[in-house]
Amino acid sequence: MNLESIVNELRGQRSRIDQAIAALQGSALGGRSSKLGGRNRRQLSAAARVRIGAAKKAWWAKQKRNSRAAKKPTLINTAKRKPMSSAARKKLSTLMTARWNQRRKAA
Asked: Around 16, how many Cα atoms within 13 Å sit in the side-chain half-sphere?
């Protein structure tokens, strides 16, 4: 064998060893090859991004519309309550205090 054929054979072995190392490193990284490094992702065009954004805005508007419809009260008397007078508030306060004291004694 001449020197040139030996060098060619060694280069072939080196390339096979490099491929084996790359394959092993890729499996350690979760199946990704070391050449990609997890950064070779497809990119969306600007038009596609605008289209997706508009669709998502419409989706959120629909969700908000539906949630408002679900939260509307179905009671017949939905008029606003009048504010409570201070005398009525004091009366309720004393009644509740008496009820709490009664429960404390019972416990």
From this structure: 6
Amino acid symbol at 57: K
Residue 46 in domain: yes
User: Of 43, 24, 42, 45, whose CA–CA distance to 33 is shortest?
Assistant: 24
Question: pLDDT tens across 32-57, in order?
Answer: 555 555 667 788 999 999 999 999 99
Report how many domains make up the chain.
Answer: 2
Q: Are 22 and 34 in contact (CB under 8 A)?
A: yes
In a domain, 13, yes or no: yes
User: Left if phi > 0, otherwise alpha if psi is -120 to 50, otherwise beta: which for 74?
Assistant: alpha
Per the domain annotation, does 84 fall within a domain? no
